[in-house]
Write a structure and sequence with these properties.
Blueprint (H helix, E strand, L loop, with lengths): L6 E2 L10 H11 L11 H21 L7 E4 L2 H15 L5 E5 L4 H12 L3 E5 L9 H7 L4 E5 L13 H11 L2 E5 L11 H4 L3 E5 L10 E5 L25 H17 L2 H20 L4 E3 L9 E5 L5 H10 L2 E2 L15 H5 L4 H5 L1 E5 L6 H20 L2 H4 L5
Parallel strand pairs: 1-11, 3-4, 3-5, 5-6, 6-7
Antiparallel strand pairs: 2-8, 7-8, 9-10, 10-12
Helix pairs in contact: 1-8, 2-8, 3-4, 5-6, 9-13, 10-13
């Protein structure tokens, strides 16, 4: 098995760059290399590429005006900027509402804001990972500056009631930000219809390159800039634009828009077949997340009695790349903060794996995976008395 081509099943962590995107990136790395802020033909050519990418990005998320898209270095920067910029624009004080299952880019930023006197309310989800819109309503105060709830969770794939939460924020005259890093290209996202004020996204989650993303800022919404000094991106995010990556991101957005929901639906069918076979062939499997509201390619499974990290390593040695949770916290020995916030039994938290599929996942790869997974789960369960001792919850 180790001599065969490895199988990548960790698309929520990052995605392979699509060939069409690679060609666009190469063009603006080599042949068209001008500074987009120069007025000569070399600059005009790359400026056109940046603005074309802005248009494709706006189209993908249903933005009314391409100028509402500001390019950044990725989702983490966009998340930081949304929260810090909203607080700064409101005078540097106030209150933030978020959830306990957000990405560390939000949670760690909130912890840092708390050190400067900002108060934060962390809403806990139900045991399926879904946040209650009613609890958001109850958490909003007169001094609440921004509510930040992710569109879809990166670990269990649960999709949140974004439209309901957005409507609540509009009624309360509070800015609403959503981290849509996992939702872009997988879900039908329309910022105009949903009414969100701020939306973060990352290129490498949608088959573009790493190091590029964007923040959608609804027209009429003001947040303080985080980076000043050059006037780029309408004085909102200074610094010479990363043209190759931005152009690649635009191409990835164009492809995602053209494919519509056909690609996500194909991935969902593949995920469902794999998940059903796992549950049929392996005893005592727990499916984590909300089955009615879940990303199409995400399957978070717990194998009580088998330590997730050990199972991950053994699968990696067999040629299969999966995850135990967020790629940004994979070096941590702490249990998943998402599964803990969902109040799952300890046996489910310790024995969890995240399988996430993508645009070039195949049935043949899933068949190969099922030749290995049941045997490895059985072996890890047999060799893990410490985990088995905790299966009481």
């Amino acid at each position: 098995m180790t001599n065969m081509n490895p199988v990548y099943m960790d698309y929520n962590a990052t995605t392979p760059v699509r060939p069409e995107v690679t060609e666009v990136i190469r063009r603006y790395l080599c042949a068209s290399f001008g500074n987009p802020n120069s007025i000569h033909r070399f600059g005009r050519e790359t400026r056109m590429a940046v603005e074309e990418a802005r248009g494709h990005t706006a189209t993908l998320i249903g933005a009314a005006d391409p100028e509402e898209i500001v390019f950044t270095s990725g989702g983490t920067e966009s998340d930081n900027w949304a929260l810090r910029g909203a607080i700064a624009a409101a005078g540097g004080d106030g209150h933030v509402v978020t959830s306990a299952i957000e990405h560390p880019a939000i949670l760690d930023t909130c912890k840092n804001l708390e050190k400067s006197g900002i108060q934060v309310t962390y809403i806990r989800p139900n045991n399926k990972g879904r946040v209650s819109a009613e609890e958001v309503t109850a958490a909003i105060r007169p001094d609440t500056r921004v509510v930040s709830i992710m569109w879809a969770n990166n670990e269990v794939g649960t999709v949140q009631p974004i439209e309901k939460i957005s409507a609540i924020c509009r009624e309360q005259d509070v800015l609403f930000h959503t981290d849509a890093v996992q939702g872009i290209s997988k879900l039908p996202i329309d910022v105009e219809a949903s009414g969100v004020d701020l939306l973060s996204a990352s290129g490498h989650k949608i088959s573009a390159s790493k190091g590029v993303g964007f923040l959608y800022i609804r027209s009429g919404v003001y947040i303080d800039p985080m980076i000043t000094g050059g006037g780029q991106e309408r004085d909102l995010r200074s610094g010479t634009e990363n043209v190759p990556s931005i152009a690649g991101l635009g191409e990835a957005c164009r492809i995602a828009h053209d494919e519509g929901l056909s690609a996500p639906e194909k991935i969902r069918c593949l995920r469902d077949r794999l998940e059903n076979e796992i549950c049929e062939r392996i005893p005592d499997v727990i499916v984590n997340g909300d089955p009615a509201h879940r990303l199409p390619g995400t399957s978070n499974l717990s194998f009580p009695g088998a330590e997730g990290e050990t199972l991950l390593i053994r699968l990696d040695l067999k040629g299969f790349a999966v995850s135990t949770g967020s790629a940004c916290t994979s070096g941590s020995t702490e249990p998943s903060h998402v599964l803990l916030a969902m109040d799952l039994p300890k046996k489910a938290v310790l024995g969890s794996l995240r399988i996430s599929l993508g645009w070039d996942s195949t049935e043949e790869e899933m068949s190969r995976f099922m030749e290995v997974l049941p045997r490895e789960v059985e072996r890890v369960r047999a060799m893990s008395p410490r985990v088995q001792a905790t299966t009481g919850g």
